[in-house]
Amino acid sequence: MGDDSPRSNSTARASSRDGFRHLSGSPAGDERGTRDGTPERVNTEKAIKRKAHRKSRFGCRNCKTRRIKCDEGKPQCTSCKKRRLQCDYVGVFEQYHGIASGDKRASGDDLNISDIELTYHWMTSTCQSLSVWKSGATFWETDMTQLGLVHHYILHLIFAFTAFHLAYSRPERREEYVALADRHYDVALSSVTSELANITLENCHAVCMSVQLICCICWARGPQKGEYLAFGESGRSEWLIMFRGIRTTRMIMNTEYLRVKVPERSLPEYKDAPEFEKTIADLRDWIGHVSSSDAIRISNLQAVDLLVECFRGRYGGIDTELLLVFAFLYKSSEDFLTRLQQYDPIPLIVYAYFTIMLADMERLWYIKGWTAHVMSGIYEKLPIEYRVMIRWPMAKIGWIPPIEEKSSFLRILTHP
Question: What are the protein's GO molecular function terms (predicted)?
Fold first, then answer.
């Protein structure tokens, strides 16, 4: 019988299958036939096909963040390659095949394009967006970048903030940039948390600046449901805890608060300065009469006085940087902030006045949308009978209550 006989072909197939079993680790056994007497090749092919489409808990971090299926392609999955993201598998593939670090930079295809893009955008655009004056970008462009080269978690936070800026500037690629921002933020946060537990004179400055960047990143994400900066849906505000961490760091190290370097020229005077003086003075008189105890009255009035100080600094042409309006939340007493997070009406009313300064900051891209969001949270938590007390700040920021609330609010306005 010739070599191309059915028997020879069957023998060859059996030998080939035994070889496959050897490579895959499957035990070699006697070939079983089917009902028509042919070898059981179809079942083997089906098993191989099912194995190729098995469910997997693996996948790169970018695909997991976006909650899409990862094809686990090597050295880079299809999704990351399409979106020009740095895939987890690149490093693993190179390590497995023994690619030297010097060889990695030899090919243009191995460049981390996403980090290069973030670096370029940070140096040419994002660093300038952190300050209201162009000269104020000098600190962020030089000092912060140099600090990031020493403390890499600063660099990751810079990249995260820059990625959110790109997401804001290029909405058609927002999903891609948000995933990139989350990746750098997660890497940085673990390091910052470790540094906060071991603050020294050497890392104090870097820790303080990292907390500032984290606060800016929280703003850059945009308004989040249940998060109103000074309080949250469950009372506690994660942003406020991080923001007050700057104050805690200063107290621990007994050093001067590290503020952003800003240009010398002051902001222009606010034309309605006399208006806020009179309105807040009326608010102060009212609070002095309705506070339930002497201790609470003192705490409330101290908050109002601090609010006046911030208004004068911002709108009287004294302060040199818009971000300094957050001195109100930085300097407020723990008692006042605790009652604010417990939805005490008077702290909520005082906080509503703060939104006027917050609205002025919306010229910065990463603050946009927060003023109306914060006011909506205040309005929701404030009892109906107290809402008349926030008419002025609502009018100043141009916020209108939800349509289902208008009728009840109008009744309050006409019968205060």
Answer: DNA-binding transcription factor activity, RNA polymerase II-specific; zinc ion binding
Provide the 3-class DSSP secondary structure of residue 352. helix
Signed CA dihedral, 304, 306, 312, 315: sign only: negative
**pLDDT by residue (tens digit) across 83-124?**
777 776 554 434 434 433 434 343 445 678 999 999 999 999
Residue partners of 271: CB distance under 8 A and separation at least 6: none
Total Cβ atoms within 10 A of residue 163: 28
Q: Is the Cβ–Cβ distance between 130 and 124 less than 8 Å?
A: no
**Distance (Å, rounded) from C-alpha 17 to C-alpha 8?**
14
Query: Which residue has better confidence, 54 or 328?
Result: 328
Q: Within 198-320, where are the H helices? A: 204-220, 238-253, 273-290, 294-315
Q: Are 164 and 221 in contact (CB under 8 A)?
A: yes
Separation of alpha carbons 138 and 134, rounded Å = 8
Which of 88, 82, 95 has the alpha carbon at shortest distance from 103?
95
Report yes or no: 268 and 240 within 8 Å, Cβ to Cβ: no
How far are the Cα atoms of 314, 323, 324, 349, 397 from residue 311, in angstroms, in the given order? 5, 13, 11, 16, 15
CA-to-CA distance for 72 and 336, rounded, in angstroms? 52
SS3 194: helix
